[in-house]
Amino acid sequence: MLKLEGIHVYYQESLAVSDVSISVKEGEFVTIIGANGAGKTTIMKAIMGLIRVKKGKIHFEGDDLTNKPPWVRAEMGIGYIPEGRRVFPDLSVVENLKVGAYTIKNKQILNQNLEKVFFLFPRLKEREKQLARSMSGGEQQMLAIGRAMMLNPKLLLIDEISMGLMPILVNTAFASIKKMHEEGVTILLVEQNAKKALATADRGYVLETGRIVLEDRADILNQKDEIKKAYLGG
Amino acid sequence: MLLQQIINGIVVGSVYSLTAMGATLVYSILRILDIANAGAYALGAYVGLFSYVATDNLLLSFLIGMIAMGIWGIFVQKFLYLPLLGKSPLISLITSIGLFIFLGDFIRLWAGPQIKDFPADLKLPFSGIKTENLTIMSVWILVLLTTAILLLTLWYLITKTKIGLAWRATAQDLEIAKAMGINVNVVVAFNFFLGYSFAAAAGIMIGIMYNFISPTMGDVPAYKMLAIIVLGGLGNPVGAVVAAMLIGLIETLVGGYIGFFLPRDSIAFIAVIIILLIKPQGLFVRKNI
Ligand SMILES: Nc1ncnc2c1ncn2[C@@H]1O[C@H](COP(=O)(O)OP(=O)(O)OP(=O)(O)O)[C@@H](O)[C@H]1O
Ligand SMILES: [Mg+2]
To answer: Where is the ABC transporter domain (chain A) (predicted)?
Structure first.
């Protein structure tokens, strides 16, 4: 479904992601783990089209994405939960959700998706009219997840779902993306919380300073000594 | 007397608010100061005047002037500001000052350096009001009505429509707006179209009110517009309208009661300096649309 073929991404002169190849099959749950600054966010932005790929190609369902603007990629069915939530601070909860469904023209589908999000996160329904900036971090994370669900994405890109959340909320967040996966959404998740990510995903890649150094089934990666040492706290 | 001054002030403030609205909208979405917006004010007045002379239809000449400047705004953002996006805002600022100076000279070359008269007889469908101690000229009513219609349209677009939602999202987080499926190129183009057409409307109204236009007519509004948008809390449309009304009122009240001990335009700037000394962040907080 998604294929990155040897992509290189630069910030000005400095190489942030080097020769990265990743593939995600339809229905899979794939994770990329890596330390701070490894290049995880950069890869997500490259897939979404928010940063230019200098070399290499990105394919989605057979189409070459390389020169397509981000909004076309969204319309093709790629959803995005960005790092640090990035909800629109001065839009209300329901407006944030509507922006998530911006490419959906059919009112009926839009309302169905809205119902679905409100069913999964009743807290968002209670706060429908509230401005996003006045919500707690955990509520904003729910909103970011809900906003991505509004698109009914085929592929969902998730950048650090656990960041800044207390453990119980991390579990809720993981439970909600697991649920989406069970409903048929293909997922690519990047995480520093390698333990959680590997426990949830089918397959994983390990990213070190902009390069993929390992790739395997998640349960196998979970058992590897070097992974345990570097990412799972011994 | 007081009522008369207040009405005068509101009329002047209306024109100021349209003048400042274009730059406010641009700032809200791209975070750059667009001085060249005042160029659309002068150029729009010329297009409006020539259209009026050609068609003898005021409504039509407003529309032609506004649409022509709106399209010009789309060009400006596409070929000037978008390529500079992501660079230092100083570069955009200097570019826009350059464009503004160019436009003044362009008008001089095209239409001549002399002042041009705006036809005095406009055949408005309504007449003014004149009582013993109150005069409301018919062009003032025209100014108030036009301003009210344009500002209400803008408010409706921003708060009630789908493009308005896209607009607010883009102003708040351009990158994420893109990723959510919003074609931000269209949003930014639309923003400039409206901003520049508002400036054109303001220019035409000033031409009508004072019965003349000139190549340098945008100079003072360029600076005054800056003062207003800073006072109104950079990129805050409601703040800009209130600040514009305030400046309009201060100008006329000081002029009316204390007299013009200084040139009229300097009063606005003195007021801004005083207000900013007391409240350095402007009258309003910076707020997203
Ligand atoms: N806007 C930028 N300009 C310059 N360098 C950048 C920029 N953004 C990221 N980088 C650099 O690119 C590299 C990869 O950054 P990236 O944000 O992709 O890492 P990450 O794996 O997401 O890290 P984290 O776990 O902290 O989120 C880092 O060395 C970072 O310093
Ligand atoms: Mg990151």
So the answer is: 2-234
pLDDT in tens, chain B (289 residues): 789 999 999 999 999 999 999 999 999 999 999 999 999 999 999 999 999 999 999 999 999 999 999 999 999 999 999 999 888 889 999 999 999 999 999 999 999 888 888 877 777 878 888 888 888 888 899 999 999 999 999 999 999 999 999 999 999 999 999 999 999 999 999 999 999 999 999 999 999 999 889 999 999 899 899 889 888 888 889 999 999 999 999 988 888 888 767 777 888 788 888 888 988 877 777 667 6
**What is the predicted ipTM?**
0.93
For a substitution probing ligand 1, which of A8, A11, A12 has the most ligand atoms within 8 Å of its CB? A11
Tell me, what CATH number does A171's domain have? Answer: 3.40.50.300
Q: Is the dihedral of CA B225, B226, B227, B230 positive or negative?
A: positive
The count of residues in chain A is: 234
Ligand 2 centre and the CA of B82: distance in Å? 27
User: What's the domain range around A189?
Assistant: 2-231
Alpha helices in A101-193 (DSSP H): 107-120, 122-126, 137-149, 167-182
pTM across the whole model: 0.91
Q: Where are the beta strands (DSSP E) in B23-144?
A: 116-117, 129-130, 135-136
Nearest to A90 among B176, B178, B288 (CB): B288
What's the structural domain count of chain A? Answer: 1
